[in-house]
Design a protein that fits this description.
With 100 residues, this protein is an alpha/beta fold. It has a five-stranded parallel beta sheet with strand order 4-3-2-1-5.
Length: 100
């Protein structure tokens, strides 16, 4: 399953709710829109996401990172950055579920 997190973890429980539901080794997480704030190095949610990457793939949408003034180098370790083409590929490969 592809778990799409669109809301900022500082304003919504979407990320925490999704993490409780996410299975091991089969689920994929994609941070989009304000959800990309969770992926910043040194941020409150970095540890949660780094732990999640040990068992699951976590992606961040490049366009949303750039739109929020975040540099690629500011994204936490093991979180992969993808473009819109990669986003579409993930949606096609996995059954998407959006958390808001």
């Amino acid at each position: 399953m592809l778990h799409i997190i669109k809301k900022s973890p500082y304003e919504s429980s979407a990320l925490k709710d999704a993490v409780e539901y996410i299975g091991q080794n089969d689920d994929v997480v994609l941070l989009t829109e304000d959800g990309v704030y969770a992926a910043k190095k040194g941020g409150k949610f970095e540890g949660l996401l780094v732990d999640l990457t040990k068992k699951n793939s976590v992606y961040c949408l490049l366009a949303d990172i750039k739109a929020r003034g975040i540099q690629e180098s500011e994204i936490a370790e093991n979180i992969k950055i993808i473009d819109y083409k990669g986003f579409v590929e993930k949606v096609v490969e996995h059954n998407p579920m959006t958390w808001s």
